[in-house]
Specification:
- The protein is an all-alpha fold.
- It has one domain.
- The radius of gyration is 21 Å and the shape is flat.
- The longest helix is centred in the middle third of the chain and has 42 residues.
- InterPro entries: ASD2_dom (IPR014799), Shroom_fam (IPR027685).
- GO terms for molecular function: actin filament binding.
- One of its GO terms (cellular component) is apical plasma membrane.
- This is SHRM1 protein.
Length: about 170
């Protein structure tokens, strides 16, 4: 029953992932349309700023999500430490925790810088775009970010359930 339940949950997650990937493709198409429009109306240096912001948006959000999930895994491993855990493993986990915490703080600084750059890009676009076009741009940025987060979350869940299923199948003779 448990194996069947895990397989069913995985199937649901795979289907959700396909929907999110489809939404991501639609978002990318909207992004390309927006890019062409921005290129048409902005000066080359302003367009370059826009493109750098959009490219960095995905990188910074992905970095933050990756570091957060790695940090969570280390914290979970640290919670499982008991009297039987050797000192070397404890030290390794503590060092990884410190490193990932520092890296996540650096990534948060990058995100704050990215948010400032977004305000600059928004200001530039406000000079050229209609209110509706500006709203479309802001919605695009918001949807792109939320889809990245949703994709990462689904990947983590799928990975977790696949590991659970694999461990369960190995434990049954």
């Amino acid at each position: 029953e448990l194996i069947s339940s895990l397989r069913s949950k995985l199937q649901t997650l795979w289907e959700e992932r396909e929907l999110v990937l489809s939404e991501a493709r639609e978002c990318a198409e909207r992004g390309e349309e927006l890019e062409a429009m921005v290129q048409d109306v902005c000066k080359p240096n302003e367009f370059e700023r826009y493109m750098m912001f959009i490219g960095d948006l995905e990188k910074v959000v992905s970095l933050l999500l990756c570091l957060s999930s790695r940090l969570a895994r280390v914290q979970n491993a640290m919670r499982r430490i008991d009297g039987n855990t050797d000192a070397e493993e404890k030290q390794s986990l503590n060092e990884r925790h410190k490193l990932l915490s520092r890296q996540r703080e650096d990534a948060k600084d990058l995100k704050e810088n990215l948010d400032r750059r977004e305000r600059v890009v928004s200001g530039i676009l406000a000079k050229y775009l209609t209110d509706q076009q500006l709203q479309d741009y802001r919605r695009f940025v918001q949807v792109k970010t939320s889809l990245l987060i949703e994709q990462k979350d689904l990947e983590e869940q799928i990975k977790f359930f696949e590991e659970q299923l694999e461990n369960l199948e190995k434990s049954i003779p």
